[in-house]
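User: quick one - fold this with S-adenosylmethionine bound?
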Amino acid sequence: MSFSFNFDVQLTTKCQQDEENQPQDGNEYSEVEPVPGITITTQDETVKAAVEHFPPATPHSLLNDAVSETITIGTLPPLNFLNESVFELTAYERDDEEMILSQTTAQCSDLISGVYEGGLKVWECTYDLLELLERDGERFAEKIVLDLGCGAGLLGILALKRGASQVHFQDYNSTVIEHVTLPNTLLNCLEEEEEEEEEEESKGKKPGKRQNNDEVIIEEEEEESMKSTEKTKSELKNKQKNEEVEDGRPHAKRQALDSSQHPKLSGCRFFSGDWTSFLSLILKEDPSLKYDIIFTSETIYNKAYYSALHNTLHRLLAPGGVIYLATKTHYFGVGGGLHLFEQFVEEKGVFDMEKLWVVEHGLQRHVVAMHFKTKDRF
Ligand SMILES: C[S@@+](CC[C@H](N)C(=O)[O-])C[C@H]1O[C@@H](n2cnc3c(N)ncnc32)[C@H](O)[C@@H]1O
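Assistant: Sure. Structure tokens for the protein plus S-adenosylmethionine:
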């Protein structure tokens, strides 16, 4: 199986440097070091209200100064995403109302249960699932897909690139959606749009190059407002933020994405919040909504969330649909894992689970398909 990164910034993060000298200061969190390189901090479960996030009307603006890398797995289309090391080093520059960037850095933790659920980085089972999809050749054309607990969103992005008609991304943290999932989706959509434009131009179908229309608009808008109000960049940013309405829905201007210019992107929706409130938000809008494919990678590490997760899968999977679950056998320190989840699913009696792949190197990992038991399918 070919598996390559075409860009890799070799950086040592502060946490890596400090790892050996990490002080155990006995604060309110309990820390464990379950797997080399992964630190999990547990805290009482809290609930986070669901919010929908919208791409800005000028999508290129989210990619200013973005440093990206590309993963290529076999015959799958290349997937672009923000370089994690650069993201970590520049995290202090970002708006982060949830304060998860500072907390994860301060605690050198990849997971703070109920606060930050790990979506800032790509977890290894995502790569397993991508490999399996390459091997088995799942078809996405015209499908409605949910990337549940998406983090970087690579699984949903693959579905989008492979022709899914709608892809919904959900992550617990709004910071993850705003600063990672959305930019990653844009990186892929905008690149494809530009390639398509170039192809059309080379065939002589289009006279002029649209070439980053958005960037031109941004420049003009910014120049204009800088001239007239002499506001600094950060003042402008704050102004935009203050214009957001109270429930967190972005300013109307940000919602007005031109779907004719960005057809792929207009098939995407982005949500933050815990699974229970995500479920009520999305069903309130459309009680009949069902997904043909649900991806969920590295989301069964905490037994306390099984009920909300199972309920969400049960309510949202289409009859005849499939859930792809990618997981480690066991999550040391948090206690969850495949066997506990299997027991839970069996007790509920709603889904069959079919093991598609066991990855033996390193910590044992699995890719599992879940379908409704026959009686529930139709
Ligand atoms: C370890 S991360 C995995 C991220 C990504 N799927 C990957 O494989 O790289 C777990 C993800 O599950 C989601 N998650 C965990 N518990 C959740 C909960 N109670 N409600 C909503 N989302 C949750 C978070 O969004 C988080 O990004």
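One thing worth noting: Residues 174-202 form the longest helix (29 residues).
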